[in-house]
């Protein structure tokens, strides 16, 4: 006598053998005899106001940890790319409470909060991401690192980074006891660029005689 009505809901369970699996759920709703408030029965496979099943959402989040495109995830979960992006935006990395003894800092190109470049902090020892900062702004970076206690910043012994003057000045000011290490990739890249400049210069001199330098570019590298 407490049943109010039934509603048919469409639930997407993903794909099975490359075909979409869609279920029709006859959801029962109850009504309170005192306050006349209506509410739906609980179920173990789909949340309120959602079309994707719980197992399908779990699959979507698992796929976000893999090196696949949003389009591939949307196809496998039988949903739209917009939905995948919406769930992806729910993922947040909490700010670390303490800092490890070794910190890696680098920039990468993105579009978070309308900024072209973001900054990621990593732990080179464990290969874990510590935090992702939305913009590469000097004042924002100073405020972020200054928010850690002085005793935590003193414990940082090494900072691995590229040859950015901006990063170097910030780290020297806030981590005076840490040794700054330039990642060897950037050193090797400068050497490669120098060798390439010499090769091009010598190739122009010998262009009338031989194409050997151009053909052996990779050997020289």
Explain what this protein looks like in three dimensions.
- With 221 residues, the chain is α/β, with parallel strands linked by helices.
- It folds into 3 domains: 3-88, no CATH class; 102-182, Nucleotidyltransferase, domain 5, CATH 3.30.420; 185-220.
- The chain is 37% helix and 27% strand.
- It contains 9 helices and 8 strands.
- It has helices spanning 54-64, 70-76, 81-88, 138-146, 150-154, 165-174, 184-206, 212-215, 217-220; strands at residues 3-16, 19-31, 38-40, 102-109, 117-123, 128-133, 158-161, 179-182.
- The strands form 2 sheets. It has a 5-stranded mixed sheet.
- A hairpin with a 2-residue loop joins strand 1 (3-16) and strand 2.
- The longest helix is centred in the C-terminal third of the chain and has 23 residues, at 184-206.
